[in-house]
Amino acid sequence: MVRGLTYLLLFQLCGEIISRSLDLPIPGNVMGMGLLLLGLIVGWVDVKWIEEAAEILLSNMTLFFVPAGVGVMVYSDLIAAEWLPITVATVVSTFVVMAVTGVLAQKLEAKGSDDVG
Amino acid sequence: MWAELVQTPLFGIGLTLVVYLLAQTLYRRVNSVWANPVLVAIFAIILLLKGTGVEYRDYARGGDMILFLLGPSVVALAVPLYQRREEIWKRKRLILIGIFAGSLASIISACGLAWILGGSREVILSLAPKSVTTPIAISIVDKIGGIAPLTAALVVLTGCLGAVCGPEFCRRIGVTSPVSMGLAIGTSAHGIGTARMLEVNRLAGAAAGLAIGLNGLMTTFLLPILMALFGF
After folding, report:
1. Residue from B179, B57, B166 nearest A95 by CA
2. pLDDT over 50 (residue A77)
3. Does A17 touch chain B (CB under 8 A)?
4. Where in chain B are the domains?
5. In chain B, residues 171-200 whose CB comes closer than 8 Å to chain A
6. pLDDT of residue A113
7. Does the predicted model carry a pTM greater than 0.90?
């Protein structure tokens, strides 16, 4: 568990360093995910070292978003002032994206555009 | 004594955990998607803080520590991606096309609707990256001139909505394969949707995790092009 968490944090740190020093628009944690994936594929990291820590974090990931959501309360006035365009655009667009991506991917998958068995 | 305790991280962490556990219990009892534990916990904590007059920054002392774990969690998404790499790689073309279309649809539908309904320029721009994961969305909005805190709020709302309604909505429109559902909900509802997908199916979760990163990248590059195209 401690070893796994250490690896995850080290990869996040590497991601942060690369993303900041090259001034990339990708945040460090997403960069860290890419680096770790590369590390696993190339064989620098054994998946057994990080599996347990990753499992604990991923199965509780929803909890970590709660404080981010509570942050909304600070901007409640701003949201109240333009609630109509904000609400309609947010709600409708959320469903539009799910429909566009989902239906397109499902159609392509059914057609077997890639070599899916 | 209470005033001192409220200012320690113990308060924010304790409150978040207790409310979250209660929200999970409620979710199991009522068996409705609207009782989504994240959504219920967020509203309950906001009401509690407003009701007791505790400042947000006091809550954030502990809350930020929980939020910090989101960073290594995003890194950890590499694990399901690695474990399912063959299934993902086989579908690379549909994954790229699906996420690209979703990214484009997100910007156009969100900004278009807000524009039609008379939203201000700042609000329209703040809505543009709302389907992108929080850290990327903030850096995008800083560059194009929206209101970063508003974007952060909209990103969380979008995520909750996608996580709550996504799986049922996908089934109703015939999106049933784990990869397609994962892509749809990951592209639309980023990390919160991905967390939900991980509960449903590991392959769907891996696809959703991939969508977080790719949608973030695509939106980063698409948005300036679209803004120039529409002369915004």
Report:
1. B166
2. yes
3. no
4. 2-68, 77-229
5. 173-177, 179-181, 183-185, 187-189, 191-192, 194-196, 198-199
6. 57
7. no
